[in-house]
Structures are given as C-alpha cells and as structure tokens.
Design a protein that fits this description.
With 261 residues, the chain is of the alpha/beta class. It has helices spanning 16-27, 39-53, 68-82, 100-122, 149-172, 189-192, 197-200, 207-217, 222-234; strands at residues 7-11, 31-36, 58-62, 87-90, 131-136, 176-183, 242-246, 250-253.
C-alpha cells in the first residue's frame, strides 16, 4: 500500500503504542484520527503532533471503545473529516483482572466491533476501495501468564478472530487485509497496572513475579511496535499474519502448520 494521502484511525491513539504508530503514519504522510478515552491526553497529543506534521493531518476524537455508538461515531467523524478510511489499528487495551468483564469489553469485544466498523467503511462489498486492519494482541497469547488469565484469554481471542476474518475477507472479496501484532512487554502505562491492586485483584500478590518476567524477557520501546505495524501496512501480501515482537528476536512472524484433512 502506498501511504501518501491515506487515512488511518488508531484506537488508544493518544499514548503508548497508539501514539508511536500515529507518529510513524504521519511521518509517512498518512492522515490520522487519534481515538482515545482520555480527553486531556488526547488533546495534548493532537497539539504535539499538529506542530510537527500540520494540524490538517491529525484529529483527536474522544471515545469509549466499549460503547458501540461512541465507536461508530468515531469512524463516522473520521470519514466525514478526511473523506475516506484506509487503515484501522484496533490498539486500545487494558489490564484489569479484578474487573475482568471490562477487560473483555476493551481487549476483545471492541476489537471485534472495530473490525466490523472498519469493514463497513473500507470493504469492497460496501463499494469501498479496500484497506488494512491491524488488531493488537500480545505475546501473552503464546507465553500465557498465570497471573493474568483474563488478559491472556482476550489476546488469544484477538488472534483467532482476526485470522478467521482474514480468511473471510478472501472468501468474500472484501479487499481488506487483516493482521495481528503480538508485542511482548512494552514500555507503556499498561505495565504500571501490575502495581495496582484495583487492577490485579487477587493476583496483586504476584506482582514481583511479573516484574521478574519483565526482567527476563525485557521491555520494548513503542517505536519498535510502530515499525512492525508499518511493515504490515506496506506489505500487500500480508493477510492473516501474526507478527511477534520480542527483545530477543525483534520483529518476526509466527509460523502455523498447514491445515490437514
């Protein structure tokens, strides 16, 4: 995909991985809608990016991704403002084992909803030009944590849903590529939640063990995750791919055994 003048929507776009990929997209002359729940952080991020890349290339939309009408409105606003939509990155995520229902709503349900909304605005079945969707999972889907069972479940779910939808896109001739990124520990505010009992619930007692895992596997910079996402966006051959990003191996892809009868 040639990126100049394309339009992207990034959930959780005002900080961490979302902000890093927004910067990378803007640098590639993509116009970006930052979709985030935090209004003050979102406005601050928009102003910062506008100074560097031009205010006409970036907008902020406050949105609770767990609310269908909110998320639907964010997509509508993006298309009305920029006139099109080509790239959707469903990146918003939380870690909350105490309020585990919320974790499922943010990490999995909103990804499913965001994918379907993206298809409404990009799929050839709706008369659009096609595009690319990247859904953010985690290395927790491969190296599951006994201290984050619900978080782990949501990240497994993102991979299963995304790969099935990638096949559906081929069968249905949607013209939309759907891929997954699975980072290991990343230097974002999400990592800080393991220090909070309100987030970890009964698993709070294991916070030191989680820190030991972080020491063992290392902590990635958000910019590396953004680099991986841009590779996916640009490579028109990638559909249903699962990109892993770790400190030990960098950016690489998971290999699946071919299906047999």
């Amino acid at each position: 995909m040639a990126l100049c003048e394309k339009v992207a929507l990034v959930t959780g776009g005002a900080q961490g991985i979302g902000k890093a990929v927004a910067e990378a997209l803007l640098r590639s002359e993509v116009k970006v809608a930052l979709v985030d729940l935090n209004h003050s952080v979102g406005e601050e991020c928009k102003e910062e990016l506008a100074k560097e890349f031009g205010k006409e290339n970036c907008i902020f939309i406050q949105c609770d991704v767990t609310q269908r009408d909110n998320l639907q409105g964010a997509f509508k606003t993006t298309v009305e403002h920029f006139g099109r939509l080509d790239i959707v990155i469903n990146n918003a995520g939380i870690n909350n084992e105490k309020n585990w229902e919320k974790t499922i709503e943010v990490n999995l349900t909103s990804v499913i909803q965001g994918t379907y909304l993206a298809l409404e605005h990009m799929s050839k079945e709706h008369g659009k030009e096609g595009g690319v969707i990247i859904n953010v999972s985690s290395m927790a889907a491969f190296l599951h944590s006994p201290h984050q069972p619900v978080y782990t479940a949501t990240k497994y779910g993102v991979i299963g849903f995304s790969r099935a939808m990638a096949d559906a896109s081929i069968v249905g001739n949607y013209g939309v590529r759907i891929n997954v990124v699975c980072p290991a520990f990343v230097d974002t505010t999400l990592l800080q939640t393991i220090e909070q009992e309100d987030n970890m619930g009964k698993y709070f007692q294991f916070k030191d063990e989680i820190k030991q895992r972080m020491d063992k596997f290392g902590v990635l910079k958000p910019s590396l995750i953004a680099e991986g996402m841009l590779k996916i966006v640009k490579d028109s051959n990638l559909n249903g791919a699962v990109m892993k990003i770790t400190c030990s191996k960098g950016i690489h892809f998971h290999t699946y055994e071919p299906l047999s009868a």
